[in-house]
């Protein structure tokens, strides 16, 4: 018996770059670098989670 191939892993590079730029811009604009770091991390997690959700949903729709 052969097992089905595993799906390709989701690449999160674009989301993390966008979140980093967003956090840096916020930190530089407000002068509060700690909040900029926190906002960048939160934005990265949210964007990555959203992208994973969209990819998995698309894979299920195309596979069924």
UniProtKB/TrEMBL annotation:
Keywords: Membrane, Transmembrane, Transmembrane helix. The chain crosses the membrane at residues 33-56. It comes from the Bacteria. This is LPXTG cell wall anchor domain-containing protein. NCBIfam families: LPXTG_anchor.
């Amino acid at each position: 018996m052969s097992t089905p191939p595993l799906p390709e892993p989701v690449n999160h590079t674009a989301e993390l770059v966008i979140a980093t730029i967003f956090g840096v811009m916020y930190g530089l604009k407000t002068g509060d670098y700690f909040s900029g770091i926190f906002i960048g991390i939160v934005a990265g997690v949210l964007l990555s989670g959203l992208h994973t959700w969209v990819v998995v949903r698309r894979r299920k729709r195309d596979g069924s």
